Amino acid sequence: MNKFGFQPLFSFSSEHVHYVEIIVRGGLGNQLFCLHHAYKQILLGNRVSFNLLAYRGKKKEIRQYSLSQIIDLQCRGILISNHKLVSQIYVVSRIINKLQGRFLASSNDRISGDIISVIPLSFNRSIHIGYFQKITSSTVDLAALEMLKSDVCRRLDTNKKLRTLAVHIRLGDYLSTSHSLHGIISMDSIQKEIFRICATTEIDSIIIFTDSPDLVDPSFFYVKGIQVSIDSSQTVYDLMLNMLSCTHLIAANSTFSLWAGLLGNYEEFVIPDKWCKDCTSELLGLEWLKRYEADLSV
């Protein structure tokens, strides 16, 4: 039995160890979900490595691997896969994952597009691919979340510096046809939630965090006597730090601000009640989080 109270499914003797290679994809928010899945595997007694082939080649300019900036994976024994078959495993896993998404019935308990595939390589090795966007109230899920928060917060400063409301407005690739299933939270929904928080809480300033500052008019969110500005962070790391420095957070339907809320000790943290056009944020689990009413457009 380990220190978290779990009896591992596999011991760490060489003949019984199960090796899990996780295909990591997406931006920092999705990477953190993959990290949470890795911690669950560790709690179950498995050894974990990350396959980072998604961040090589042409796409590396769009989605960068950012976990290394906020956590030392080696503190939990997570390795980066560098064996001879790493490229082939990545390609085959992506193909299998896409085929499962196309031909198997969609799951009613997962976020749209989050197809999870467990691909056995041998009796003691398997590949896990997916976005793993669900955290329940199970003992192992919560223990993995606490481990992750503890490890990440060693590098990230989560101390509050200002009585500031952080507001995440996600546009960016959500505006494209290929990502339109996400939907965009209406400005009216965000404005309504800003007004509610400012009416009940002492707020000195509001900071808008957005990937499309040219499309957001900060004056639309003006509350009498409260300064409204748009964050100008140039890196994902700085963006996360600045968001964590605020005392309140209104998240978008985005894994980035969702994880900022899970990592930061906010006085109030709310996520939208809808996550994609065809599903609510209840599919994320996280039932203890507060939701606000969000209308999705586009």
Structural summary, described in words:
- By secondary structure, this protein is an alpha/beta fold.
- It has two domains: 19-152; 164-297, Rossmann fold (3-Layer(aba) Sandwich).
- It is 28% helix and 20% strand.
- It is built from seven helices and 15 strands.
- The strands form four sheets. The protein has a six-stranded parallel sheet with strand order 9-8-6-10-11-14.
- Helix 1 (28-43) links the parallel strand 1 (19-23) and strand 2.
- It starts with 18 loop residues before the first strand and ends with a strand.
- The relative contact order is 0.14.
- The model is unreliable at 7-13 (pLDDT under 50).
Task: Write a concise synopsis of the structure shown.
With 298 residues, this protein is α/β, with parallel strands linked by helices.
Question: What's the arrangement of secondary structure elements?
Answer:
Layout: E1 19-23, H1 28-43, E2 47-51, H2 67-70, E3 79-80, H3 86-103, E4 117-122, E5 125-129, H4 139-152, E6 164-169, E7 184-185, H5 187-200, E8 205-210, E9 227-230, H6 236-244, E10 248-250, H7 255-263, E11 268-272, E12 274-276, E13 279-280, E14 290-292, E15 296-297
Parallel strand pairs: 1-2, 1-5, 2-3, 6-8, 6-10, 8-9, 10-11, 11-14
Antiparallel strand pairs: 4-5, 7-15, 12-13
Helix pairs in contact: 1-4, 1-7
